[in-house]
Amino acid sequence: MNGFTPADALMGGALIGAAAAVLWLGLGRIAGISGIVGGLMTAARGDRVWRLAFLAGVMAAPVMYRLAGGPVPTGALGASPTLVIVGGLLVGVGTRLGGGCTSGHGVCGLARLSPRSATATGVFMAVAALTVFLHRHVLGG
Amino acid sequence: MRGLILALAAGLMFGFGLTVSSMINPAKVLAFLDVAGGWDPNLALVMAAAVPVAAAGFALGRRRQAPLAAPAFQPPAARAIDGRLVAGAALFGIGWGLVGYCPGPALAALGVAMADPKGADLVGAPLFILAMLIGMATVAIIDRRVRK
């Protein structure tokens, strides 16, 4: 439905990997979005500013890309507002319990050959695929 | 100051990566997760490119005593593969599968929604992020109580 765009996917992935490398070599930090956001609530005051700078970059990039004339491939959410709230709560609770998300466990953890991250990535990928299967093909959502 | 510029630069690269690869679009992510539908392998290629590039960065880091703009590398302290890890990853997987947003793309989409509040796309991003922050705060509060 959206088409297969391998060159864009590889280019974007390389940029994400490079971002993780810069944050590690520059600040010695893991580029895990959920950990960086969650740390805003738990970390010491002096440990917050770099988090805000990184997150501001993530939020500003697609805006800058669009201003420069690039196509920002946004899409209307298929989920209802109730489902968006339930999904957001589950992602918030789950990533803090599990200590990471697609970036922290998926990209950085796999790159560090962490068995803990490999386990988490396998579980959330499998559960997400199962959720989509049940939602789309069994319940007909 | 140098650390802040590096953090901002890394965030921008991350956001550009999500945009170029279309991972900012929840429909694209759900199409990857929909193994039984018209499976869209893009997310696998994003990971396949991101992981080795990040790994090169971690390999370079092993040759250095400290990062460029911080006193020490801070690898994650947690190493255990336990019930908490598996339960958390499973809950995250359900939420991700229901909506198609994980934290990074949702934040990038929030940036677009904030810059263009009347845009029809990505209207769910602010609501999703708000719910996600409430979920994260809940865990932080419970963890703090348990530690006491």
From TrEMBL, chain A:
<feature type="transmembrane region" description="Helical">
    <location>
        <begin position="74"/>
        <end position="97"/>
    </location>
</feature>
<keyword id="KW-1003">Cell membrane</keyword>
<dbReference type="InterPro" id="IPR007272">
    <property type="entry name" value="Sulf_transp_TsuA/YedE"/>
</dbReference>
<keyword id="KW-0813">Transport</keyword>
<keyword id="KW-0472">Membrane</keyword>
<feature type="transmembrane region" description="Helical">
    <location>
        <begin position="49"/>
        <end position="68"/>
    </location>
</feature>
<keyword id="KW-0997">Cell inner membrane</keyword>
<feature type="transmembrane region" description="Helical">
    <location>
        <begin position="118"/>
        <end position="138"/>
    </location>
</feature>
<feature type="transmembrane region" description="Helical">
    <location>
        <begin position="12"/>
        <end position="37"/>
    </location>
</feature>
<protein>
    <recommendedName>
        <fullName>Sulphur transport domain-containing protein</fullName>
    </recommendedName>
</protein>
<comment type="similarity">
    <text>Belongs to the TsuA/YedE (TC 9.B.102) family.</text>
</comment>
<dbReference type="GO" id="GO:0005886">
    <property type="term" value="C:plasma membrane"/>
</dbReference>
<keyword id="KW-1133">Transmembrane helix</keyword>
<keyword id="KW-0812">Transmembrane</keyword>
Automatic annotation (TrEMBL), chain B:
<keyword id="KW-1133">Transmembrane helix</keyword>
<dbReference type="Pfam" id="PF20398">
    <property type="entry name" value="DUF6691"/>
</dbReference>
<keyword id="KW-0812">Transmembrane</keyword>
<keyword id="KW-0472">Membrane</keyword>
<protein>
    <recommendedName>
        <fullName>YeeE/YedE family protein</fullName>
    </recommendedName>
</protein>
<feature type="transmembrane region" description="Helical">
    <location>
        <begin position="41"/>
        <end position="60"/>
    </location>
</feature>
<dbReference type="InterPro" id="IPR046513">
    <property type="entry name" value="DUF6691"/>
</dbReference>
<feature type="transmembrane region" description="Helical">
    <location>
        <begin position="81"/>
        <end position="102"/>
    </location>
</feature>
<feature type="transmembrane region" description="Helical">
    <location>
        <begin position="122"/>
        <end position="142"/>
    </location>
</feature>
